[in-house]
Amino acid sequence: MRLHVGCAMWTHTPWNGRFLPHPLPPGERLRAYSTWCDAVEGNTTFYATPARATVESWARQIDPDFRFVVKLPKSITHHHRLTGAEHDLHTFLDAIEPLGPRAHALWVQLPSSFGPADVGTLAAFLRRLPSSHRYAVEVRHRAFFDEARPAALLERVLGAAGAEWVPFDTVTLFRSPPTSDAERDAWTKKPRVPRRTRALTGHPIVRYLGRDSVEATVEGWREWVATVAGWLREGRSPTVFIHTPDNADALTLARRFHDEVRARVPELRPLPEPMPAEPPTLF
């Protein structure tokens, strides 16, 4: 029984010297992060396909059961809108091949303009993908959340492909006006959609965005603690990513979420002890 938790990145300046040793060479940063969390969002691949040698370095730093949820490049999802991007897709799949089983799912994040009329395009794209990977789709068009027929249509397409629907839960962020610069920035950029807690596969993936206040973030995830505990009892193996607008405490929050679920499901395997930020002293 495994619950994997993680953050939106594995390096973040506010963590340096506070949670993670600093300085660290690039070839050690993911390894240090992996002592805190056992999953990470692969957001960097959205902006550019990494060199294969870079991905080989990532793979060397982590155990085979670590979970990368790797985002497809925006050239495929946003520029080509899933059509005519075979070359970009082939290049991306070749680049991430060294991750092996660590590539837990390939993440298809679609723009907010990708709506119910485009579901056929998504279905055709998913059919063309190699069966060697697991897939997860994130949609942002409001119709998929507000209208029963588009939601049911999307679920049928995802179900036929064995793909998961990834919720990006921003309800806590938008519950009250922003109180920091990071929250104000998030208000302008993040999707405002209802919470969705239905899993389609045995490997649900959740993206939860809280507030810069630890207390508000923890209060906002209560429903997810119960939902994830229920998934585990059903035999599912979820992955949950904890975000806050500034992500300053995201590492400890991810572990706290794991602890709260484990309090409800005691047989859940604990996370490893994190690497200390400073070397031990002799005195």
UniProtKB/TrEMBL annotation:
PANTHER family: UNCHARACTERIZED PROTEIN YECE (PTHR30348), UPF0759 PROTEIN YECE (PTHR30348:SF9). Transmembrane segments: none annotated. This is DUF72 domain-containing protein. Coiled coil: none annotated. It comes from Nonomuraea spiralis. Gene3D superfamilies: Protein of unknown function UPF0759.
